[in-house]
Amino acid sequence: MAQDDERVPAVPGPPDDWEAPRERWLSTVVRPAFGPRSMLLEVVARMLIPAILVFSVYLLVAGHNRPGGGFAGGLVASMAFVLRYVAGGRYELAAGIPARPPVILALGLLLSGGTAGAPLLFGEPILRTHTWHFELPVFGEVHLLSALFFEIGVYLIVVGLVLSVVAALGARMEAEEEETRAWGEGEVR
Amino acid sequence: MTVLVALPFLLPLLGAAVTLLISRWPRVQRAASLLTLAAVTANAGLLLAETADGTVISSQAGGWPAPLGITLVADPLSALLVLVSSVVLLIVLLYAIGQDVGGLSRGNPDVFHPVYLVLTAGVGLSFVAGDLFNLFVGFEVTLTASYALITQAPTRERTRASMIYTVVSLISSILFLTGIALVYAATGTVNMADIADRLATVPGDLRNVLGLFFLVVFGIKAAVVPMHFWLPDSYPIAITRISAIFAALLTKVAVYAIIRTQTLLFSRDDITDVLLVFAIVTMLVGILGALVQDDVNRVLSFALVSHIGYMIFGLGLVGVPGGHDDAGVAGLTGVIVYLVHHIVVQATLFLVAGLIRQYVGNTSLRSIRGLASVSPALALFFFLPAMSLAGLPPMSGFVAKLALFQAGLEQGGPLAYAGVAAGVATSVLTLIAIFRIWVRGFWGTPSQAIVAAQSALSSGTGRFGIRWMTATTGLMVATGIAVALLAGPLTEIGTVAARELISGEAYRTAVMSDSVVAP
What we know:
The structure holds 2 protein chains of 2 kinds.
Chain A: H1 2-7, H2 39-62, H3 70-96, H4 101-121, E1 131-136, E2 140-145, H5 147-188
Antiparallel strand pairs in A: 1-2
Helix pairs in contact in A: 2-3, 3-5, 4-5
Chain B: H1 3-21, H2 26-51, E1 56-60, E2 71-74, H3 76-101, H4 109-128, H5 132-150, H6 156-187, H7 192-198, H8 204-222, H9 231-234, H10 240-265, H11 272-291, H12 296-316, H13 325-360, H14 371-374, H15 376-390, H16 396-411, H17 414-442, H18 448-457, H19 460-485, H20 487-503, H21 505-512, E3 516-517
Antiparallel strand pairs in B: 1-2, 1-3
């Protein structure tokens, strides 16, 4: 039986000179949270994330007159980061976010609170919106509202909050799981 | 002037953001936290100075006119409560900082400071909210912060207690939201001043049901018997600074909401009897519960439940058809004085329990003994607010209780007399509960463990910590004495606020047409 196996391999492997694809679809060495890595998911994440982020910004800006706004935009943007985490694990998540989640949250709160409170300095009620009209070379006439900054703050708060949740409930538990497994293997050896 | 109305929640929110950003530098973080609360307190002082004569200030957020937009409004009652709660928050923060510097707490300051300020913002927003939905938002901000705070320094018991607390709070929030939806369906508005006008056209039965619905919603949050069961299981378990703030403020915010909704919105209907029965049951059940506890914190929690009954009793004296208006005003004045007194005294007693925990390791009546000889200051700081809680003259509790009893006797009627009798009985039973703690905990010879803990605390950073904590507890005791000394002006403001609450004219005019209405 053993001789038969030597002559005919059970699964024909690739030829020796064949090169496995080396493209990295994500920015870190991929270690998905649970289970084996999925190339399909990585490729989809790589292609979708920029589109999701652009769409979230669209929602943020469109929110003044149409469905959307900082909250919806922030949720959509955080879905991009969640997708990145699911595909690539916690190192990928850490590589993908610009700052620690509490910092994002705090900056958002400062921006929102500051925009809400700024009219008080001019004797106006809280949350009063100021409008600026001006011409930009490519965009044409721009109608800018101070409420946009409030919405950006909300956007950042939502992103910071979802990332905090992912960091606490996903990444942290994952790290603990890895520690437990490493400890278990050490015992066996 | 309208700026003052927006700052009670805006300042702490900005402060929370700043303390979150600078959590790497604990000293800067503490300073920022203190500075924010000092600013909030100063602002509240100015707000009370503006409104003490009965002026009502309102501000429409974003400039949207009243029934449509978000209304912020401060009348004497809100201003007084904002001031008292920010003073208490400030002193408890000082206590907490001393504890952290002394290395005597297992809490996580990185989380504590921002979340504490968010809690401050939630309390402030609840007091100045002019529409039901923002009142809900204020409650939710407070509660969300409190969910995070109650699990500070997590242990198995704390996690369990916080589960009860979270589930009960969520249920009551869902009921609150349902109530808002029902009111909106009936009147087409959520602005409280507008609701007050439009409820006149709603059928009386429906109005009664809505009024009772809100009484249940806020009754859960204020721990009115029989909706109190969650409180003694959750508050005593948290770390000291948190249980002090929860006991002092969270239930009082709900009492404020009961006062606001029952006077402004549902004053046309007579649910006086219901309120009085709730009050009597709450007083007696709470204090009988306190008598059989064997833990200082649990005794204090049951006493807290019991004393909520006094406030409901005072509110029950208002609006009796054919009754004396003066008695209603006197009753409501009593409630307002009682609120102020009780916020300060409960916070003090829980801070003292925290000091006991530092010496003994826990607050069980079985393990504490001889504390008076270990720390005479601690004994004094327990004795004074405890006597105030029981209502002995010349403390603030006496002033508040006397006002309530006089109003009850003036109002007359079987339930009012029963309420006064229950109130007197509760005072006596409170005294007995306090004496149990005093005799078991403060007399006698301290055990080996307590003496060892004392000598451990009398050196190193622990010494600074315990001294600082004792000093801030003393500051809170002094605040309580100041409430007693200022009983005259306080009663004046209370009377102005009570008249204003009962007529509701200035409030409605300020919200609906004019931003500032002088009396």
